[in-house]
Amino acid sequence: MRKGIFIILLTVVLAVITARGQVRTVQHRPYTDLRPLHFGILVGMNMQDIEFTNLGPQTITQEDGTTAERTILCDADRWSSGFSVGVLADLRLHTHLNLRFSPTMHFGAKHLSFRDPSALDQQGQPSIQTQDMKNTYISFPVDLKFSAERWNNYRPYMIAGANPMINLTSKSQDYIQLKRSDLFLELGVGCDFYLPFFKLIPELKFCYSLRDALDHGHSDELKDANKRIYTNAVASGHSKMIVLTFYFE
To answer: Could you tell me the pTM of the whole model?
Structure first.
């Protein structure tokens, strides 16, 4: 009975929303999408993470010359927030298809933890080392934008494309170092909102690194030899990013 009432209420709500959506309103900036080229600016926030593949047990040589087996587990234990700024160029290819280029700077960080089950603290828990990896990326995304029909003053869309990024962060003596360049695949959704004086475009997209982002030569640059076991514990890493952007055209 309750399930039937819920279905009826849901049907009524959807019917009301659909009915309201059929009412035509004043069209703001009706010809803006007919221009062959658009320009704009963007601001937003990003959430960064990295997905590691751990190497597993390592055989190390201790100070007394003996060998021992150690297993270090590395993980990015949370998503870390940052902010993004950039510019936009949008080329109209078709009524429902645009080519976008939006150079952007992403400021953020990744928080890493290294767990050593073979070394226990006073509470009997594995010892943990941490690293705050600061990241400043400049990205050059090229995306295809697939737009639906405009209705009143909104127009939803989907995007897909490739995003080369350059890591501007300087080298350090931390455990993990990322390469200078990376390539991301990105997918996202958004909606054009046509306001009286400009177009506002909120967009949410997901970016995933297609290449191994780790600088595997970093262990040879470390001055502290005790850090190398942590650096060498990771076989590969793929960066991830969620970006919420607001475009102004």
So the answer is: 0.81
